[in-house]
Amino acid sequence: MEVEIVENVLKYNKSHAEENKEAFSKNKVLALNILSSPGAGKTSLIIQSLKKLKNKYNIGVIEGDISSTHDANKIKEYTESVVQINTGGSCHLNASMVKNALTKLNLEDIDILFIENVGNLICPVNFYLGEDDMIVLASVNEGDDKPVKYPPVFIKSNLVLLNKIDMFELSNFSKDFFLEKVDQLNPGVEVISLSCKTGEGLDNWINWLEENIKLKKTNIT
Amino acid sequence: MEVEIVENVLKYNKSHAEENKEAFSKNKVLALNILSSPGAGKTSLIIQSLKKLKNKYNIGVIEGDISSTHDANKIKEYTESVVQINTGGSCHLNASMVKNALTKLNLEDIDILFIENVGNLICPVNFYLGEDDMIVLASVNEGDDKPVKYPPVFIKSNLVLLNKIDMFELSNFSKDFFLEKVDQLNPGVEVISLSCKTGEGLDNWINWLEENIKLKKTNIT
Fold this sequence. Notes:
Chain A is α/β, with parallel strands linked by helices.
């Protein structure tokens, strides 16, 4: 019976996700679901992206947290299109929460929507939100063994970001080991290394974003 | 109906946790449930503790991961009493998994049992395993806002460890802010700052362990 309920929850989630997907398609919004451990730098990545692109594109942000508006307040300095979702303890966003949040955003005017998921490498992976891409953000300080210890998020993500590369020298992080393990789990997946602090590598991420916005805008839906 | 099932799961968990607690009591084992984000340093903390105390006490380790034996292999260099639990995707240990793992350890011969939970600041909090103390390990690289963003684990833990303090200079971590927020959530809770890398502050943790082993051994159960 428990299994049946889990299946029902996922089925229910999927139908909402499909509605979100349709809304993103119709409005040609590039929707990105960003996953990471707590403190890996999701909010910093979004702020850096806003700084670089806010004069060129309209960017919306959905902030997912179990409680508080701590990150949303930081992001409000860069865009007015921020919606906070407090999950009330739940360890991941679901498509229904995102659907509700979308009613507070004017999708017609948005080019990119960052969905910052709850800081958690495990639970959010199973809940499709209707996004174009699931992106995992790892950070050097967490160690090079994260793909070994948390395979599903690396298997399912369409892009892997490695943040805090300014910390390479101070850590015993082996980039080769990390890349090898990521590639074993998700052959050919693109990995972009960057530092939100020093700005190194950020241009590659910005290029990725611009290419993907272009694709989204030109797609015949 | 879903709520009822969740309640049943927690009730079922609690009865196993009580059995574990009784086993720890009977054998005067100090059992510690260690929670953190991925990569905060749980395994390093356990290895440092083994290095400092393995000639004085018998130390057992239960390693919780969604998959792999990566950490257990590292720990095996320091103690033979290691049991790996692979949760098969689940985001936390539960008392029943720990109960099964205990059948593979000789509790009569163990003084301290480290239970390294799955790397996750949210889900493990609700699953009591029968431990003496729940300990949260935060790390400087995650930022000083973790208590604001993940309150329950800081509210419920009996001890807060702050790891990677050798990174203070390179981060904008405010120790005052962190301590203030922790104290608001859990007034009076002890916080020990340390670096598993440089060894700074480790003695305070070792003292805490030795005091608590002493208490456990002299407790009339």
